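Friendly challenge for the regulars: who can give me the structure tokens for this chain first? No prize, just bragging rights.
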Amino acid sequence: MKLNELAPPEGTRSKKKIVGRGRASGHGKTSTRGHNGQGQRSGEATRFGFEGGQTPLFRRLPKIHNFYRIEKRTWTAINVGDLNKLKAGSEVTPESLVEFGILRSVTSSLRVLGNGELKVSLKVKAHHFSQGAIDKITQAGGSYDVIQPAPRHRGRLPHGLVNTIKKESKQTKESKKESKDS
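First reply, four minutes later:
Bragging rights claimed.
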């Protein structure tokens, strides 16, 4: 085979449509654009969602307001094998992991995964545990505890949630006053 014999397989390449070469070409006179109307002249461009003058879908749908944004949690993962550096019987929390130099900063989204072997019995407190991590912690004679993070909200809150937060803060203030009085 020579370079001049190379050709694409039949049917994969189609010829470019040649327009505006007179009526006999099949694409002449109006150059496949039709007669008058939108799209007939050069420079025709319609914006995204344009439906020919009909009210577009995004305007036909009902508007529902006052949704609040739920923040994503970015998880900090740590493997069970990394906990072998700690002393037996110690309590492992996000704060203690920062002190031992395993984590860089305290996180409200600590996830313990089951990679590696755990040779030390520990009391591990984290926000999430994989099933493999739970099995390895209990096999080593340790215990695990799931911590619930404090709720984080940004922007407007739904009315019911605002009331529950107010009730909780009111109850804590009352309990502080009672403890000071006694």
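The chain has a mean pLDDT of 84. Residues 76-146 form a domain with the Ribosomal Protein L15; Chain: K; domain 2 fold (CATH 3.100.10.10). Your move, everyone else.
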